[in-house]
């Protein structure tokens, strides 16, 4: 039996094509994945992301606990509502999950974790808490739904739907959040566009979804979400990173604080392990389509290989792009080859993101 979000019936009413996504019954698209992609880049689209899990951690020692749990430094969070993107690591430096942490008060932090890793995340967090901070209360919030509204007109359309929201959210900077009654409004997203991710009681999700639709926000499914996040150069857990690689090999060094004296799980291994691989962007120069797991041939200074972690066709750029893990030392601008159906096709190494705020960057 597949798990369902509070919006499952609403998706079916809109004739969504539903698929099994990591054990969840989720919409792939509502007719045209391409149209949904362009709608987010040019106007506003909405995604049901209620399969992701909100976790509230409360207690006097929650900040100290998170200092040791995650790779980024929660001491950066000093303003209520501020958010931080980070990774939670194994003792050997592998990535258990990537997540967002919100600082709500000194005794209350909120985490948002991936759907596919939610159970193991809760088990890991709980186990670490028992050892380090047994007085904390860890609460998975399956009573909540989450809807992401993304695109250049997303915020304006949200303001039209939620009375009084503009006054308190207009000045929010990226990675900041605010509460308005039952709504938790965060200026975050997974598309490379502006917008909000809005958490609200599950029982209110359908009404809010329908009001957004009436305000001209187009529903968008997993297909568009994937092409948008790939263009934005955003990692997908299970493809671009997992427990077999560390964040320094995954383009996530910016989420790891190795400078402060603070210790965290996996830090010592990161300090001691040479970084032999890097995550780069690729743009295909020949005709074809880049796909996950295709081999990358670099053939420079004895560096013979790599692999595409996420690949596909970019609707915005009208060409094929990819994220690939290749040997360290291959520079932006260099040419590599990708094995596509037994042929070696030329591709150029580029700095991602490929697209941000509707603008091509490569």
Structure description:
This protein folds into 2 domains: 1-244, 2-Layer Sandwich (Gyrase A, domain 2), CATH 3.30.1360; 276-360, Elongation Factor Tu (Ef-tu), domain 3. With 362 residues, the protein is of the alpha+beta class. A hairpin with a 2-residue loop joins strand 18 (335-340) and strand 19 (343-350). It has helices spanning 8-13, 33-42, 62-69, 118-132, 154-161, 165-169, 205-214, 222-231, 267-272, and strands at residues 17-21, 24-29, 45-48, 53-58, 83-89, 95-105, 108-113, 137-140, 144-150, 177-180, 183-186, 195-201, 218-219, 277-284, 295-297, 306-314, 319-327, 335-340, 343-350, 355-356, 359-360. Helix 2 (33-42) crosses helix 8. It has a 6-stranded mixed beta sheet. The chain has a 6-stranded antiparallel barrel with strand order 14-17-16-15-18-19. The protein has a 5-stranded antiparallel beta sheet with strand order 5-6-7-4-8, covered by helices on one side.
